[in-house]
Design brief:
Number of strands: 5
Helix content: 55-70%
Largest sheet: 5 strands, mixed
Number of domains: 2
Shape: elongated
Strand order of the largest sheet: 3-4-2-1-5
Length: about 250
């Protein structure tokens, strides 16, 4: 594809030490509206983080990285979650010193155990940091406030999804299959059911989705509450008890 050569040449002239093709084009899954997703890697990243433009009618997105940021995928759980599979499927356009090729080899050998300890700590943080959203959902269900319920669900769904991903080590191949990747990797049937309902894939109403979100938080606590640190444990435990009592009264 000539367009890739043009972009690569321009980025190299601007000082990029590696130019990489990611996304649907690197996996052979592109469709007519897919963008070209490129990463340019520098020793010191430029002041701009991303460049988006059309070139010959094709949307091109160039994201700018340092080598240190690429390395983070091997030590930070959240970065690993989103980047390891991408590294494995990356097509190298320019890498004269082989630095990214070496990272790609490491990505092929990556095992979730390398970041598991940090991942478990994040599970506890998510259970603690989403307490307010749980209370907002209960208030919304009690008053039949659909807008408040939707807003609170938007705030909590990413954290509940990551709890499962951090526990299972479900590496994300593409954001287009983010939810299904987590759903398929989760071993607990009850968690999976509440998760799918929360996301709206079952045709449930807003209030049914809100109730499913509370059940999902509760199930997440039952499965992973041991990872909450001592400082937050009592508060998270009390939140779980409050949700149980709310649901026992009939929810909404």
């Amino acid at each position: 594809m000539d367009i890739l050569g043009t972009i690569t040449e321009q980025l190299v002239q601007e000082g990029a030490e590696a130019v990489l093709l990611l996304g649907s084009f690197s996996r052979g899954e592109e469709v007519p509206y897919s963008d070209l997703d490129l990463h340019a890697v520098y020793q010191t990243v430029p002041t701009y983080q991303q460049r988006i433009a059309y070139l010959d009618g094709r949307l091109v997105t160039v994201s700018f990285y340092t080598w240190d940021r690429k390395e983070l995928a091997f030590t930070d759980a959240q970065t690993a979650l989103w980047n390891i599979e991408g590294m494995r499927h990356t097509r190298i356009l320019h890498d004269p010193e082989g630095r990214f090729a070496a990272l790609q080899t490491r990505a092929q050998a990556f095992d979730w155990s390398q970041v598991r300890e940090g991942a478990l700590g994040r599970i506890g943080s998510h259970l603690y940091n989403t307490i307010e959203e749980c209370h907002k959902i209960m208030g919304a269900l009690l008053t039949h406030n659909a807008e408040k319920c939707m807003f609170a669900m938007e705030g909590i769904k990413w954290s509940l999804a990551e709890i499962s991903a951090f526990a299972s080590g479900a590496l994300i191949v593409t954001e287009n299959r983010y939810w299904s990747t987590i759903h398929q990797a989760e071993p607990d049937p009850e968690w999976k059911e509440h998760f799918w309902t929360m996301l709206g894939f079952t045709g449930a109403s807003v209030f049914e989705r809100g109730e499913a979100t509370l059940k999902l938080y509760l199930r997440s606590f039952e499965l992973h509450g041991e990872h909450v640190n001592e400082e937050h444990k009592n508060t998270v435990q009390q939140t779980a008890e409050t949700i149980r009592a709310f649901l026992a009264q009939g929810g909404y």
